[in-house]
Amino acid sequence: MSDVARLAGVSIKTVSRVVNDEPGVHPDTAERVLAAIEQLGFRRNLGARNLRRGMSTGTIGLVLEDVGNPFYSVLTRAVEEVARQFGRQVLTGSSAEDPARERELALEFCSRRVDGLIVVPAGMQHGYLVPEMRAGTPVVFVDRPAGDVVADTVLVDNLGGTAAMVDHLAGHGHSRIGFLGDAPDIFTASERLRGFREGCARAGIRYDESLVVMGPHAEPNVTTEVTRLLAAGATALIAGNNRITVMVLRALSTVPQRPALAGFDDFELADLLDPPVTVLAYDIAGMGRAAAELLFARMEGDTSPPRRIVLPAHIIARGSGEVRP
């Protein structure tokens, strides 16, 4: 504000009065101050002002993996709907699976004095949030648990859902099932791989490492791996998330005899494809609502022990080649 005061030829107190809409400033003086603010690009720090006054900033932070992913779009909308009910706005950023970026975003939101924080973890180290949590900023983790702090968490049953899908395909005569998962250091990917192994054991199918492909994936290597899996005798494929399912579908577009295909996460138009795609679905919006409701409960004084909510995943069987001819 000192720069604004010098340019406008007034005191810092006068600038403060103009910025905070206080009375007692002559209109011509206020106009000079506003012109200086515009020229210098000065922006008042609402978070700091509200902190001095002991007020809420009216915002919460939401750190996602990728806002461009339809999964996170649905989750964000659900969080926004709950926040709106409590008169809050949502600040959102994407970590791109980079733990350093996750930390940067989370701490940036905290520096802006958000009233609470929802995080989709990109890494397994969250001790950096402990000082913020001790200072009174509630934090809820969603889709994946925190690595080294105890906090409210909302997850989906990744292991149980994938195991059920293996059992579903085995029940239709498939014993050579391929699995394409995301990077194994991602919690959801590792849990779905565990579910695949457990599903094989439950169904009495030999777990074959050669039928497992873990990411990260790009379309060319998915095409290569799908070709290899089919050559190895796979009659059914399970894709570990919605983006992998779409890449597998593209890889299968030129395959004369398409294998059975099932994917974790439902996705738009999956039921309109020919054949439609069988999926493991769960309530993504419900996940966002649960996380936001936990957060606002903490913001309103709930001091009960941290909660862990696990949402079920259920099979939507659409006949995408499950039954072997």
UniProtKB/TrEMBL annotation:
Pfam families reported for this sequence: LacI (PF00356), Peripla_BP_3 (PF13377)
GO MF annotation, one: DNA-binding transcription factor activity
Domain called HTH lacI-type: residue spans: 1-53
Cited InterPro entries: HTH_LacI, LacI/GalR-like_sensor, Lambda_DNA-bd_dom_sf, Peripla_BP_I
UniProt keyword Transcription regulation present: yes
SUPFAM superfamilies: lambda repressor-like DNA-binding domains, Periplasmic binding protein-like I
This protein's UniProt keywords: DNA-binding, Transcription, Transcription regulation
Protein name: LacI family transcriptional regulator
Organism: Actinocrispum wychmicini
